[in-house]
Design a protein that fits this description.
Length: about 80
Amino acid sequence: MNGILPAAETAAVDSELTATAGSLLLQPGFASTPLRQILIALVAAAIVIVVGRIVLAIAWKLVTIAAVVVALLLLLSTSGIV
């Protein structure tokens, strides 16, 4: 299929990778030292920040568009057109 995996195989690979990554954190002693706990916390914070930046990059554009639309509707309603 031109080098692209079918959906069923892709889903199986994704779930297998997720299970492997999840089981790594559940291994006894993985976060037993304070440095490892700090590393896990920093990686989690970095993921939250990256996802937050993406969401905020979209959100401010939506808020700007909404403000322009409301301002135009206000101008049209005060002039009696709408």
